[in-house]
TrEMBL record, chains A, B:
It comes from the Bacteria. One of its GO terms (molecular function) is kinase activity. It holds the Pfam family cNMP_binding. Signal peptide: none annotated. Transmembrane segments: none annotated. Keywords: Kinase, Transferase. SUPFAM superfamilies: cAMP-binding domain-like (SSF51206). Residues 33-116 form the Cyclic nucleotide-binding domain. This is cAMP-binding domain of CRP or a regulatory subunit of cAMP-dependent protein kinases. InterPro entries: cNMP-bd_dom, cNMP-bd_dom_sf, RmlC-like_jellyroll.
Length: 194, 194
């Protein structure tokens, strides 16, 4: 368990025992119950989270109270309300546990400290930020070019386990379609598969 | 002119003359005529570009040949087909000049060299990547939650000069609406404003 953080970082940069000890002391561990909130809209955003186990949703509630899902975060994902976290403003998004979830927590001050003191960690976070940026651009492209059916099939292909772990109503909020449209896609897909 | 790169970088990190000279030697300057391509679909992606003057569009052509606009890049913007550039794969996007455009060019090898040799530059690119990631997330949110009219008004608010510089057919491809829908929004808006 304790070593997940090190394994995760060392997929990008190698750390000495001393360097890892320095990095590790800036992280705390937190447990969230299914349904619990790690980030609550309008509250301060204290941490960026790295998921150890479990599943989170990053959501926006519009004026009518309808929930829109920006992303799902599972094992090995970093997630927070980044604009609010970086600018030390209250959250405009919420981060909620879909399953019982265990996370590492890193404050902005700690993030800045470990980046400044250890270039390897600045390099690690640059890699992560670039990948996050590319994944977001891919999602923009799928909104511009793909039909709801194609977006559904992209999720099937890229995150197959998500379909087992996420209730259909949440998947619809992620794809930006109604629950009825999703049920139709689901039925058609199973018919094709069978 | 020559100093734009330095001014741009020093909005984030201060460089000594020696450090700037080291960074500067990794950039070349290129001129693109209106209509010219900096990145051509299926060709190698040699550079990330920083716009000195002019205007670019990053586009995806779908199977039917229809053009979808992922972003407009103007003065002070960095742009490339990032997934292709980082992975040294052929482009799946095109980057085209909407106006006569002047850019700095940076190869992936040079990017990696200046990041490795100068932590300040790794820090600079981390800031840029984080901002790019946040801007993309904002755009995803606007696809999930905003009507075409609201997306149009967001552009009016955030990039007012874009409306003067970009033909309406391109703006429609950026907003993900038909040209007819955009004309209706445009007329309604001018009526409200008048």
């Amino acid at each position: 368990m304790e070593e997940m953080l090190r394994r995760h970082i060392e997929q990008v940069v190698r750390l000495s025992d001393e360097e890892y000890a320095f990095v590790r002391q800036h992280f705390s561990i937190k447990y969230g119950k299914k349904g619990g909130l790690l980030i609550d809209k309008s509250e301060p955003v204290r941490y960026v989270y790295l998921v150890i186990s479990g599943l989170l949703k990053l959501v926006y509630h519009d004026k009518t109270g309808r929930e829109h899902i920006i992303s799902f975060a599972m094992e090995d994902w970093w997630e927070t309300d980044y604009p609010a976290w970086f600018s030390r403003q209250p959250a405009s998004l919420s981060l909620q546990c879909i399953e019982d979830t265990q996370v590492y927590c890193l404050s902005l001050d700690s993030y800045q400290t470990i980046c400044a003191k250890l270039q390897k960690m600045e390099h690690f976070f640059l890699q992560k930020a670039n990948r996050g940026h590319m994944a977001s651009q891919e999602r923009i492209l799928s909104f511009l070019t793909a039909t709801p059916r194609e977006r559904y099939e992209q999720v099937l292909r890229k995150q197959p386990t998500l379909l087992q772990r996420v209730p259909k109503v949440l998947l619809a909020a992620y794809l930006g379609v109604s629950r009825e449209t999703l049920s139709r896609l689901w039925r058609n897909n199973n018919r094709t598969a069978g």
